[in-house]
Design a protein that fits this description.
mainly beta; Immunoglobulin-like; 7 strands
């Protein structure tokens, strides 16, 4: 039987920790995975945004998504009032969003209670 050295055992432990880190981190960041946008007769926009996040309960869940202008200004925000543990991905809507003249594209980004922003975003061209 081969005897493993202390440095080998330490390397195996380090590699194991690195491989398990994503699962030990829990739910991770909230990702926008789909968007539809329509313009209403009054010129405002309605966004239907699909978000995925491994919600773990009230302490760690996707709690909002936002419509963001190219300059970073938040043009609209949908607050998500509860976890969606058994519903992934989920889609929620926001209407009445006013987009200033001259803006042709907006970015949709999601937020979660632990990581804040940082997950996948989607940029769309307005109709």
């Amino acid at each position: 039987m081969m005897s493993l050295s202390w440095s080998h055992n330490r390397s195996v432990a380090l590699i194991s920790m690195l491989l398990l880190a994503p699962t030990m981190a829990g739910a991770g960041e909230a990702d926008v995975v789909g968007v539809t946008v329509d313009q209403a007769a009054n010129g405002t926009y309605r966004f239907d945004v699909s978000v995925t996040h491994a919600d773990e309960g009230w302490d760690h869940y996707a709690d909002a998504w936002a419509v963001v202008a190219p300059d970073g200004a938040v043009l609209g925000e949908r607050i998500l009032a509860h976890p969606h543990v058994g519903e992934q991905p989920f889609t929620r809507s926001l209407g009445g969003v006013q987009i200033p003249d001259g803006i042709k594209k907006v970015t949709l980004r999601a937020h979660d209670k632990v990581h804040g922003l940082g997950g996948a975003e989607i940029t769309v061209t307005l109709p």
